[in-house]
Amino acid sequence: MRSLLIYLRNYRKETILAPLFKLLEVVFELIVPLVMAHLIDAGIGGHDEKTILAMGGLLALLAFVGLVSAITAQFFAARAAVGFAAEVRMALFEKIERFSFTQLDTIGTRTLTTRLTSDVNQAQNGVNMVLRLILRSPFVVVGATIMAFTVDARAALIFVAVIPVLSLIVFLIMRRTQPLYKAAQGKLDEVLLHTRENLVGARVIRAFNRQEAERAEFDAAADDYTQTQQVTGAVSGLLNPLTQVVVNAGILILILAGAFRVESGNLTQGQMVALLNYMSQILIELVKFANLIVTISRASASGDRIATVLSVETEEEMEDVVRDRDADVIDASSDAAVVFDHVSLRYAGAGAEALHDITFTAQRGETIGIIGGTGSGKSSLVHLIPRFYDATEGSVRVFGEDVKDLRRDGLRRRIGMVFQKAELFSGTIRGNLRFGMREAVSGNESGAADGIREETLIRQALEASQSAEFVDAKPGGVEFVLTQGARNLSGGQKQRLSIARALMRRPDILILDDAASALDFATDLKLRTAIRKMSGQMTIFIVSQRVPSVRFADRILVLDRGRLVAQGKHEELLESCDIYREIYYSQFPEGMEADPSEEAS
Q1: Residue 375 and residue 576: Cα distance in Å, rounded?
Q2: Residues 6+ positions from 518 with CB-CB distance below 8 Å
Q3: How far apart are CA 504 and CA 373, in angstroms?
Q4: What is residue 39's DSSP assignment?
Q5: 590's torsion region: left (phi>0), alpha (psi -120 to 50) or beta?
Q6: How many Å is the Cα radius of gyration of the chain?
Q7: Which residue, among 164, 389, 379, 184, has the nearest Cα to 282 in the 3D structure?
Q8: What confidence tens digit (pLDDT) does each residue in 493-527 have?
Q9: What CATH number belongs to 2-312?
């Protein structure tokens, strides 16, 4: 949690003023019992109306000034806490945005979601409570004890005996609850995992009638979280009653001892009331401090969890180094667009290699088809080109430059990538398409790639991706608003818009990672034909399990269990590669050829 305090650096004024105004409030509160003692002894006891009115007015003034001080302190504390939370959340988001795919795979979506939401909220509450009470409560306890000595030293010894006992109780419970709160936050991660899976996979769950099973799994995770919270609450719940028992025992002893001293004339009634007020103030502050300890325990546990994401241990393993060059300065006219030189890849924590000793060269303007069975490493291979993962052995070169020597942001500006799962964002179709533009354009149509107007780029991308027909039929056309995850589009429509977004970039390298799996064969054919016509010198990688999608590529790479077993044209592979032949005849039984209309393309 301490490492997060740097995010309060822009709120130094608030972090100083909030405790100071709280201390000012405390000073006025500590004066009140003395005023009350004087009012009772001199005013009421002496039947002095002037003293009663003067002391009453002073009490009202103290109450008003104390109220103003308290409100001011809470304003500054809240402002600092909210600003702190905003900066931590922004730092977390920026950090997560820089994470590699490996780190996202390792840490997990549910964990990062909890960090950004629940953990940040807990840390915000902790900062707010600390600024308001961390100085106030100890100051009241110590100040009330000192003021009690000024009233009567013998009676104040009871305070000296009570405070160490209370401090021990607070320390022991805080020591026990902090790890419990940390464990509870981990259980919350599990609950969020099940919640997210059920929301995202609602259609699949209903299709397979798995509602009861999923509900049972969620109930188990929720019960585990509930039990942990109950244990934590039971332990922290001991704080208030134990402190009240000790303080009330002290008040009882104070009353018994004070009664004898009042009777003997060594203590006045007003002084006795002042001592009881000071003991009550200690009780109230310790109750507040108990709640503060609970909040601090939660905030500390959450802060530690946030710090693990922001800490050195989770820094990007693919950090750009000093020698890195911007990809914009490389020569894209090189004949060899992409070169894999004895490349192997092993994912973090995996027992076996996902790719083993892959070597091939993709020439500029060439269309490369990549085919293989499920788990053969097709997606892993193309993910190395934009450097989503780093090769564990060998090198990947783009236009003659090792990708590890290029800045990742510059490298990825030269590449258009369409993933297996179409990911679109809430907002207009236009807004989603503009994600693919090399430079953001706001409020005008200038500044698009290669000086082409934005509207022209959009129309060309929509037509090439076979999206124009359904986009034009939508209300507003490209201004049609997509819901979260584009749930108001079909799977094929989402895939075509994802391809259009990649084409908006006019990339030097286009990677279609099984991007047409939801399209029918006719639309897939039209899509590939249109892309070939507009590609020019664009190097295209088409990853697919469907032979028609890669059949007319300039070269086809056949993968099996992470190895490149063959490469060549369709006819060559049918003659020489058993695996390709098996894939082909599984889709087109012998004697039955693919649609001959594709030959014309």
Answers
A1: 22
A2: 422, 490, 491, 492, 494, 495
A3: 31
A4: I
A5: beta
A6: 35
A7: 164
A8: 898 999 999 888 888 899 998 888 778 888 888 88
A9: 1.20.1560.10
Match 């190097």 to its residue by tokens: 539
Question: Side by side, which strands form the sheet with 509-513?
Answer: 415-418, 509-513, 539-543, 367-372, 555-560, 563-568
Whole-prediction pTM value? Answer: 0.67
Average the pLDDT over each of 50-59, 235-244, 287-296 and give the range with the smallest value.
287-296
Cβ contacts of 279 within 8 Å, gap of 6 or more = 144, 148, 158, 159, 247, 250, 251, 254
Instruction: Please check whether residue 98 is in contact with residue 316, taking contact to mean a CB–CB distance below 8 angstroms.
Output: yes
The number of angstroms, rounded, from the C-alpha of 217 to the middle of its chain's C-alpha atoms is: 24
Task: Report the pLDDT value the prediction gives residue 445, as an integer from 0 to 100.
Answer: 40
Phi-psi category of residue 347: left, alpha or beta, with phi > 0 → left and psi -120 to 50 → alpha: beta
CATH for 367-386+415-595 is 3.40.50.300
* Count of all residues that appear for the chain in the document: 601
Q: How far apart are CA 288 and CA 294, in angstroms?
A: 10
- Look up residue 113 and give its amino acid: T
Give CA–CA dist 184/190, Å, rounded: 10
Provide the pLDDT for residue 599.
42
SS3 call for 235: helix
Q: Can you read off the two tokens belonging to residue 444?
A: 């005008």
What are the residue ranges spanned by the domains of the chain? 2-312, 367-386+415-595
Q: Which residues have CB under 8 Å from 477's CB, separation 6+? A: 429, 471
Where is 343: in which H helix or E strand? strand 336-345
Helices 136-151 and 120-133 sit at what angle, rounded to 10 degrees? 20
pLDDT for res 558: 94
CB-based burial of residue 424 (10 Å sphere; 0-12 exposed, 13-18 middle, 19+ buried)? buried
Question: Tens digits of per-residue pLDDT, 306-317?
Answer: 888 887 454 455
